[in-house]
Amino acid sequence: MTYLNKPVLHHPKLKANALGLTHRDYEGKVSTLCAGCGHDSISAAIIQACWNLSLEPHRIAKLSGIGCSSKTPDYFLGPAHGFNSVHGRMPSVLTGANLANRELIYLGVSGDGDSASIGLGQFAHSLRRGVNMLYIVENNGVYGLTKGQFSATADRGSASKRGVSNSDSPIDMVSLALQLGATFIARSFSGDKTQLVPLIEAAILHKGAAFIDCISPCIAFNNHPGSTKSFDYVRAHNEAVNTLDVMIGRETITADYAPGTTREIVQHDGSTLRLHKLADDYDPTDRTAAADYLQRRHAKGEVVTGLLYLDPAPRDLHAGLDTVETPLNRLGDAELIPGAKAIERINAALR
Amino acid sequence: MQATDIANPDYFHKVVDCQWACPAHTPVPEYIRLIAAGRYTDAYMINWRSNVFPGVLGRTCDRPCEPACRRGRVEKAPVAICRLKRVAADKKDDVRAYLPKPAKQHNGKRVALIGAGPASLTVARDLLPLGYQVTIYEQDPKAGGMIRSQIPRFRLPESVIDEEVGYILGLEPELRLGRRVDSLKAVLAEGYDAVFVGCGAPRGRDLEISGRKEAAANIHIGIDWLSSVSFGHVGKIGKRVIVLGGGNTAMDCCRTSRRLGGSDVKVVVRSGFEEMKASPWEKEDAMHEDIPILNYMVPKAFLHKNGRLTGMSFEKVRAEYDTKGRRNLVPTGEPDVTIECDDVLVAVGQENAFPWIERDIGIEFDKWNMPKVDAATMQSTLPKVLFGGDAAFGPKNIIWAVAHGHEAAVSIDRMCAGLNPSQRPAPAVTVMSQKMGIHEWSYDNDVSNDARYKVPLRPKAEALGDIKLEVELGFDARLGFAEAARCLNCDVQTVFSASACIECDACVDICPMDCITFAANGEEKDLRARLTAPALNPTQDIYLQTGLKTGRVMAKDEDVCLHCGLCAERCPTGAWDMQKYLLHTTQAGHACRSSR
Q1: Which of A135, A201, A278, B364 has the most CB atoms around it within 10 Å of its CB?
Q2: Alpha-carbon distance B421 to B592, whole Å?
Q3: pLDDT in tens, B179-214
Q4: B107-139 pLDDT, tens per residue?
């Protein structure tokens, strides 16, 4: 961390997006996390993605639980709505907020402790219900705030900073998400913003439950030779199955790739995801094949990253519940009070 | 791109834009920090070592440092470096204990200095403590040169000149005042080991147009007139005055006129207002004293009646640019403008004149009748005769004269030691980490958001009433501190060590100016375009380091770095460090003789 606020002075040639905002306008308070924390890079990637998409910061709601990762919403999108919930309960609060106002963009920020331990049940249900959100887990494999005990995502056999080996099986959040029915699933690495930023953009545009498992090395407790979530380990074992371009509207397509290696997927909102295939045998629209591929690679100690699964026509919780389009805070008496006749009709139906 | 060689002293020197731009390479951020710390005497001595006349320059310097100041590239205005220098001079304690003492014994070498202006006095200051026997020739009754004769007292009080010239005279040179040198041959005949010509550019250009002779009584050459005012020979001028010319001398002439009875003073320039040679702040000061500046008017004739000046006529012109971008002044066809006046001051430029240098003594002159001078050694084609200040390359300013003086002194010292003066000594450089604790640095890295402070002025009516009353009051301690806090400490360098870097991106994310990029290497032009924020200022270097684990390079655009040190604070491995780079040019003395 630093005791200073980031100076307000900025590069004189800073570009503005469609809203006339610079990326500095999407920042939050200065981070209090340890210097070099992967979570700060993820915050920077979120800032970059929201700026790229020209999102209005005040139309975004960021929700989190407890932990290092859950502190980060304070460090990006200062003008956005924020809710720091009870440990592991972010998914429920987010679901409730989304039901009350579907017009905001929902950003659930959590960690491996918050989502894979205390909040595992909450995590599961928000994905299976198809809440329209980006659920991002900043996954470092340790409890950083309590001095680096293994978390539920730590690989069996990986060592703690003191050299103790982990004997428990890890929870693979991507595999869980595949099984639970999330419609956008990706894994990325805080040290690779070229991959991470387009994934965040695509996930925000996705109208369904989007989940990103982002490996984020804990500099203080889990960036040592025995770790499988260190910068060196992830860089050495990172197997990206694809990279991504996000295209919105009629933006000219200029990128030039060898034929046969790219695949375009049009999302429900009209945005196009252009995937550059890196692994020949990987099909991101096949849920069971994806699960199979991930398990095989994980067994070899590899970390598969990229857009792992996408259902271009997702189902949203609102569709299932047939809720009203208008946010609840904008419904007036006319909509909320059915009147005596309607009550009579209902009563009559129950007699 | 090749990795940057930070062992080359020029690399980090260039990052300290102000110091690099200063002809005398004054360590600007170093003394500004001392001012902020209230250590005015120390700040003064840093200046005194480099530029010899901090009190004078803090009021009159042409400030090449300020347009170069990085602060001017990240917000509206640069740090008021010049006026901070004055704060150090105004608020210092008695510095005499820190000054060199007259040499206890002579080294047997004799040096003559022609002219007692800033260039010669610098040579004297550098050589006298080493034991040289120095003789100064000066036409005026007092030492100081143009500092004393041409800069009006309301900009520079005589006490400041006396003090700083006095520090040098205290080193006991031999003074031959009040006598003009009219033969260099005769001076050389006295057997000096070296002769330094620092006589300035003493001749003001005249304007030979119709009526010049007839109205001569009320037409004055600007620099001569200013000199007469300075020495008390002239005490008044007519009510209506026209000043011709757009340089700093013209600004001094018009403002002096306002104080000697001129109530209706106008400046008339041939070119456009923007192209005037005068510094922007000098133009501002003139206009503040109700002096209009009329542009695009070419003098046509001095008008006179019964042998007395009555006014001037001007032709109106406009600027046209040809295909090569050269400017031509073309008549607009409008009728000529006549301006009535009682006196005219001609300040249309200065020239060098060397009628006193014999052409057969081995000093070659070029086609403009200027001596051929080596820009590094300041030597003429007669090696023991050196030139400096305006005498060397035409009119410049005090700080250039000082820089020339230092270089000439080095040449003389090396020459007298039997060494080749063309071999120049390397600067003395120290680079040291400023880290004091986890988030603690030995400099204030919390960047001030304040806008540039204005120097308080004396009320106009009062200022115009007395020619000796200094107009600018200078920053007080509080304003001086606030202005000093605006300095970005560009000498505290971001030093990167690739072997310690784990490429976590923390520095990239925190950098408020988007200076830092980790990317694949490439040609400089290509790399500049691929940075987090494209590096569009080619005069500013890219700091490049190789040797990262991923094979990428770290590229930092030095252009707008705030030196806030947040990259180093956020760095988990200490790959970034903030290190103070202090450069002193090597002056005459044993250090300048160490390279052979």
Answers
A1: A135
A2: 10
A3: 899 999 999 999 999 999 999 988 889 999 999 999
A4: 999 999 999 999 999 999 999 999 999 999 999
**How far does the CA of residue A234 sit from the closest CA of chain B (Å)?**
12
Q: Which amino acid is at B352?
A: N
Task: Say what the ipTM of the complex is.
Answer: 0.90
Nearest to B353 by CA among B199, B247, B184: B199
Query: Does any CB of chain A come closer than 8 Å to the CB of residue B533?
Result: yes
Q: Which residues contact B284 (CB under 8 A, 6 or more apart)?
A: none
Give the pLDDT of residue B272: 92
Q: Which of B222, B116, B118 lies closest to B173 in space, CA to CA?
A: B116
Q: Last residue of a domain, which of B393, B416, B439?
A: B416
A35 touching B, CB under 8 A? Answer: yes
Q: Does the CB of B578 have a partner CB in chain A at under 8 Å?
A: no
Average pLDDT in chain B: 95
Query: From residue A322, how far is each of A316, A318, B321 by CA, in Å?
Result: 10, 6, 72
Average pLDDT on B29-51 reads 98
Contacts of B234 (CB under 8 A, 6+ apart): B225, B228, B260
Backbone angles phi, psi at B417, to 5 degrees: -95, 5
DSSP state letter for A58:
G
* Close Cβ partners of B334 (under 8 Å, ≥ 6 residues apart): B316
Side chain identity, residue A84: N
Residues A14-32 have a mean pLDDT of: 95
Q: Could you tell me if residue A20 is inside a domain?
A: no
B260, B236 in Cβ contact below 8 A? yes
The single-letter DSSP state of residue A116 is I
Closest-approach residue (CA) in chain B for A3: B439
> A35 vs B509: CB contact, 8 Å cut-off?
no
Do residue B381 and residue B359 come from a single domain? yes
Tokens of residue B300, six digits: 């046509």
Number of domains in chain B: 2
pLDDT reported for residue A269:
74
The structure tokens listed for B547 are: 């040797």
Q: Are residues B209 and B198 in the same domain?
A: no
Give the residue from B309, B332, B350 where a domain finishes: B350
Q: Which of A189, A177, A186, A90 is nearest to A140 (CA)?
A: A189
B-interface mutation test, from A4, A42, A218, most B Cβ less than 10 A away? A4
Q: How far is CA B347 from CA B226, B264, B276, in A?
A: 10, 18, 12
Name residues 44-83 of chain A within 8 A of B (Cβ): 44
Reported as a pLDDT band with limits 50, 70 and 90, residue A255 is very low
Tally C-beta pairs within 8 A across A and B.
94
Residue A54's CATH number: 3.40.50.970
Q: Is the Cβ pair A38, B549 closer than 8 Å? A: no
Distance from CA of B481 to the nearest CA of A (A): 19
Place of tokens 């946010």: A327
φ/ψ of B593, rounded to 5, equals: -100, 0
3-state helix, strand, coil in chain B (%, to 5): 30, 20, 50
Residue A63 exposure: Cα atoms within 13 Å on the Cβ side: 24
Average pLDDT (B44-70) is 97
Q: Which residues of A touch B550 (CB under 8 A)?
A: 235
DSSP H stretches of helix in B137-180: 146-149, 158-169
